[in-house]
Amino acid sequence: MSKPTIKTIDDIEPTLKEMQEFVGGYIEVVYLNKESMMIIDEEGKIKEKPVNKEATDIAHENQAIFNTDYIAGDAMILSGDARLS
Q1: Running DSSP on this structure, what letter comes out for residue 32?
Q2: Please, are residues 74 and 24 in contact by the beta-carbon 8 Å criterion?
Q3: Which sign does the torsion angle of CA 81, 27, 8, 54 carry?
Q4: Chain Cα centroid distance, residue 61
Q5: What is the three-class DSSP state of 26?
Q6: pLDDT grade, residue 75 (50/70/90)?
Q7: Cα 43 to Cα 25: distance, rounded to the nearest angstrom
């Protein structure tokens, strides 16, 4: 498996299909703060996707997940006009 990546979008809201294709499954929204959210694969851990250290660090910094939790697989960060309504 390749190293998980993070894609940041701030200009236009992606479609559900685009988000699902990027994360490789059903989406789950992790709210980072009032200005941004992270889209991840809802079943990333079940599918045994590799730990996304960068996404995990961002989620921990924003206290969006428990200290013992982690993000598995690719993640998409939405901010500005890209945030889901």
Answers
A1: -
A2: yes
A3: positive
A4: 14
A5: coil
A6: very high
A7: 7
pTM for the model stands at: 0.95
Q: What's the rounded Cα separation, in Å, for the pair 15 and 76? A: 12
Q: What are phi and psi of 58, to 5 degrees?
A: -65, -45
* Distance set, CA 14 to CA 7, 40, 57 (Å): 12, 14, 24
Separation CA 50–CA 73 (nearest Å): 6
Strands of the sheet with 27-31, listed across from one edge? 6-9, 75-79, 36-41, 27-31
Name every residue whose Cβ is closer than 8 Å to that of residue 48 and which is 6 or more positions away in sequence: 72
The pLDDT tens digits of the residues spanning 20-71 come to 999 999 999 999 999 999 999 999 999 999 999 999 999 999 999 999 999 9
Of 75, 63, 69, 72, nearest to 6 (Cα)? Answer: 75
